[in-house]
Write a structure and sequence with these properties.
By secondary structure, the protein is α/β, with parallel strands linked by helices. The protein folds into two domains: 145 residues, NAD(P)-binding Rossmann-like Domain (Rossmann fold, 3-Layer(aba) Sandwich); 281 residues, Dihydrodipicolinate Reductase, domain 2 (2-Layer Sandwich), CATH 3.30.360. It has 14 helices and 15 strands. A hairpin with a 3-residue loop joins strand 12 and strand 13. Helix 2 runs antiparallel to helix 3 and helix 9 crosses helix 13. The longest helix is centred in the middle third of the chain and has 18 residues. The two termini are 33 Å apart. It binds 6-O-phosphono-beta-D-glucopyranose. 6-O-phosphono-beta-D-glucopyranose binds next to helix 9.
């Protein structure tokens, strides 16, 4: 995968922050465990905390052992040690030149060309300072080896600020150096949509307005905001997961077939779809769970959304008149993320006398997590002497143990090392996302309270019921381990 002689430095700004703790350091461990750590890769953490190299390694060791919802497999000491041996730390103020002088000195010690990836796990308001210093100290130069930058959400807080951020990035870097990471694009279950949809002749011809009645997307979590009140209370659910993860799910499930498996083709097909989404500002519900105002870091009178439900449609021929209903939130009944393609009712003809108003429609479900799988509901005759109907399921389950699916961060880290941007978001794509979100934010009127542990406010039920449809209760039984 990597040329043995190439050397890589991964420089993490904000190395002791939340993102690095929860996602990045565990993903680096996975890189070692997968045997994919490039032989000459060093990891340099940069942060405000006064830590020596040894203390940073101790800290990282503890991070690997702390409970982590995203990283639940056991840590082997020999592998952890391999990682820690590659780790270094520079303490200091990101806005001062000293850090960059040390980084330059480290980089000059390298005998061969040093490829650099700057991972900005910091607040976006520090980017400008960091980029400036990297430029002034010559660290941005690609005389020999590449320079790449990875950033994560928030990529702007609206179209205008996203555009400003893209301009800032483009002042210092070419688009092919910029990796805007959305970990949902690194999910196995979402990447497989390309193979499932475009590699089978069976399903894709049916996914259009002639056969599909509607589409539902659910992304519910049975927990609250935890320690992230300060951040969460400044964004809310629609910006936290709607603008990024959920729009990516919709794009991958409904975009047109790319003509080649290339970054340019796939990214432009996703972007095209995002541009076709219609923001229906009158089909929108915002909610807040009861107890949110008592959460740490939340303003006592906050009107931030912890839930949203919406209807959208795709402005193209293929999906004309096919609504997409989305609901997402925290403190809901269950943690589940899925896309359900609900087909039109076929029981109106021959079997009408037996269906007795029951909903027997075919449903194709892409279960993103947990119990990852692809499930198709179909109607069957109940075995017996009388003609009775029952729903049955064809299912493909991804895994046999919780650790079998590659971690999205690991995959995207590998892609960034390889220089493959297919599953990263480019400037045009992120702006297309905001173009859809901005009018929804502007149209917000009410905030509906909902009980923790429920499926959200009643208004969300009414939203879909007004169209004569119902939310599908995500199944707990399929693909359960
Ligand atoms: C993050 C959001 O981007 O995605 C979180 O900030 C959310 O609030 C998380 O919980 C969901 O990701 P995952 O991988 O846990 O489904």
């Amino acid at each position: 995968m990597f040329h043995q002689d190439e050397s890589f430095s991964l420089i993490i700004f904000g190395a002791t922050g939340n993102l690095a703790q929860l996602k990045l350091i565990p993903a680096l461990y996975d890189l070692v465990a997968a045997g994919l750590l490039p032989p000459k890769m060093s990891i340099i953490g940069v942060g405000r905390k006064e830590l020596s190299n040894a203390e940073f390694r101790d800290y990282s060791y503890r991070v690997l052992h702390q409970p982590n919802r995203h990283h639940q497999h056991p840590i082997q000491d020999d592998l952890a040690q391999k990682l820690l041996d590659r780790m270094h730390y520079i303490a200091g103020d990101i806005s001062q030149p000293a850090i960059y002088e040390q980084l330059s000195a480290m980089s000059q010690q390298e005998k061969s060309c040093d490829n650099k990836i700057f991972y900005l796990a910091t607040y976006p308001d520090l980017y400008q300072t960091i980029f400036n210093h990297l430029e002034d100290s010559g660290l941005n130069q690609q005389k020999c080896g590449f320079v790449r930058v990875i950033i994560e959400k928030p990529i702007g807080t609206n179209l205008d600020s996203a555009h400003q951020l893209n301009r800032l990035l483009n002042t210092y870097y070419q688009e092919e150096q910029i990796f805007r990471l959305d970990h949902y694009l690194g999910r196995e279950t979402l990447q497989n949509l390309l193979t499932f949809r475009f590699g089978n002749s069976l399903f894709e011809p049916l996914i259009n307005h002639e056969t599909v009645d509607h589409i539902q997307v659910t992304a519910s979590e049975d927990f609250g905001i935890g320690e992230r009140g300060g951040y969460y209370d400044s964004v809310g659910a629609l910006k936290d997961v709607g603008q990024n993860h959920i729009l990516q799910m919709i794009a991958l499930a409904t975009m047109d077939a790319p003509t080649a498996f290339t970054n340019q083709e796939i990214t432009s097909k996703r972007t095209e779809l995002l541009r076709e989404l219609i923001p229906e500002t009158d089909k929108l519900v915002f909610g807040q769970y009861e107890g949110y105002l008592q959460e740490k870091g939340v303003a006592s009178n906050s009107d931030r959304d912890t839930f949203f439900a919406l209807r959208t449609q795709i402005k193209n021929k293929r999906f004309a008149g096919v609504p997409i209903y989305v609901r997402a939130g925290k403190m809901m009944a269950r943690t589940v993320t899925e896309i359900a393609i609900v087909f039109k009712d076929q029981t109106k003809g021959l079997l009408q006398h037996l269906s007795q108003d029951q909903d027997h429609r075919n449903i194709l479900i892409y279960r993103i997590q947990p119990n990852e799988g692809i499930v198709l509901r179909f109607l069957s005759k109940k075995p017996g002497f009388d003609l009775q109907l029952q729903d049955e399921y064809l299912q493909y389950c991804y895994k046999h143990s919780a650790a079998d699916l590659p971690d999205p961060y690991l995959r995207l880290l590998i892609d960034a090392l390889r220089g493959d941007q297919t599953f990263f978001v480019d400037a045009a794509e992120v702006e297309a996302q905001w173009q859809f979100i901005d009018p929804l934010i502007a149209a917000r009127q009410h905030l509906h309270p909902y009980t923790a542990g429920s499926w959200g406010p009643i208004a969300a039920q009414k939203l879909i019921e007004a169209d004569g449809r119902k939310w599908i209760e995500p199944s707990v039984s399929f693909c359960s381990l």
